[in-house]
Amino acid sequence: MTIALTDEISAISRLVAEKVGAQKYRIWFKNTTSLTLASDYLQIEVPNVFIANWIKSHFSSQINQAVRDVLGDSRKLVFKVDASISDGTRPATKPESMVKPELPSCISKPAPAKIQKQERPGRIPLKLSFDDFVVGSSNELAYNAARVVVKEKQSPFNPLFIHGGYGVGKTHLLQGICNEVCQSRPGTNWLYLSAEDFANQFVLALKTKKLEAFRRRMRQTDLLAIDDIHFLASKPSTQEEFFHTFNSIDLAGKQIVLVSDAHPKMIDQLSDKLVNRFVSGMVVKVDTPDLQMRLEICRRCALKMKKYVPENVIRYIAENIKSNVRELEGAMLKITAFSALQEDKINLHIAKEILAEHIVRTDPIVHIGDIETNVAAFFGISTAQIHSSKKDKTITLARHFSMYLARKHTSMSSPEVGKCLGNKNHATVLLACKKVEDQISRNLDLNWTCSTGNKISKARTVLAKLEEAIAN
């Protein structure tokens, strides 16, 4: 590693090597990074975007800990791409005064909490567009609905509510709508933001007594696009404000597009009047991509990265990573980055070796959707009821078993399970698991009610039947 000649940098480098391991350090740091320490940041220069993104995503915590161990406090990590690092054309060190902290535009960074708004006709301010969206059986309906929203000034789908699991392309569709509207109708006044941004700006407007200005910005729009609308759950004041915002835009005949991880009726602690508004338009689900879509996504990734990836490697990735698009893209990034660093051609043997841990970690045998569907069917209720806050005996029992089975048969953490099953907190999941474990250990009689009447069965029998159902 080429570093600034300071004892602190040398110590940080040694600690990073210890924390990430010799092999990973050799692949991702040695001869491919340059560190410069300033009073309030640590700059990490890298030869390309692949390495920058990978280090940022996978080793930030180890680097931060190394900095704290050496300096006694934290430093902001700043990434900069400099191709001369790997070709030997840059100086070995750079004076600290010459270093300007910067993040290149090609490296992903958190979006600011401000509203993103079209300011100049023809400019596309959002990252994702329809041009690189892969259409298939799992998202065709949602894609066609999005196209209608772009084409028609007053579409029949208002609101358009898109929901689905993690990394299946919901945000891609939402940003694609905004970008297409930019191009086809440059004069359109539109807003794209997350529900968290909406909530934060609402609270700030209240504190600064600028509520009217906030309402004008939100309500005087031709297109309002809100991501992660489920964030409003359990926030009654913000829900009330959004309800009036929704009504104002809807009554003016303008378009609203919403994205969520769950169907409106499955978002716990969302007011009935908002649920009714959301389901009054077009509610469409985006499912996980099928094999043909996954193959096409991998091919496009390779093309975008300008790296040749053999078809048998692409097929291996597509057949083994089934959960979502982000995992596919991550796998493609990993093998292409490894190939670039090692200057080796990609082949199936190398791909299997590099992705062995990745595939095991990201693609559990059982998925939480299978669990909640089978549990709901067994207890004679709907998955929406499992996601709800109702404390009916049958619903509670089904919810507890769903959480227990999700923790047992998937790699999901308690907070992740809670979020998927109606935005419950991790403490609720932990208590549910403990209760089910106690019922199973003592093999207690379980009672519940379904459409055919009252049911009673031993806890271990219930568990066995449920595990058999989700395994098939």
Summarize the structure.
The protein is an alpha/beta fold. It is 53% helix and 12% strand.
In words, what does this structure look like?
Residues 1-5 and 87-124 have low confidence and may be disordered. The chain has helices spanning 7-20, 22-28, 49-58, 60-71, 84-87, 140-151, 170-184, 195-208, 211-219, 236-251, 272-278, 291-305, 311-320, 325-342, 348-362, 368-379, 383-387, 393-409, 414-420, 426-441, 459-471; strands spanning 2-3, 34-37, 41-46, 76-81, 116-117, 160-164, 190-194, 223-227, 255-260, 282-286, 445-450, 453-458. The longest helix has 18 residues, at 325-342. The protein is an alpha/beta fold. The chain has 21 helices and 12 strands. Strand 11 (445-450) and strand 12 form a beta hairpin. Helices cover 53% and strands 12% of the residues. The strands form 3 sheets. It has a 6-stranded mixed sheet with strand order 5-7-8-9-6-10, sandwiched between helices. Strands 1-2-3-4 form a 4-stranded mixed sheet. The protein has 4 domains: 2-98, 2-Layer Sandwich (GMP Synthetase, Chain A, domain 3), CATH 3.30.300.180; 130-286, P-loop containing nucleotide triphosphate hydrolases (Rossmann fold, 3-Layer(aba) Sandwich), CATH 3.40.50; 291-362, Helicase, Ruva Protein, domain 3, CATH 1.10.8; 368-471, DnaA protein, C-terminal DNA-binding domain (Chromosomal Replication Initiator Protein Dnaa, Chain: A, Orthogonal Bundle), CATH 1.10.1750.10.
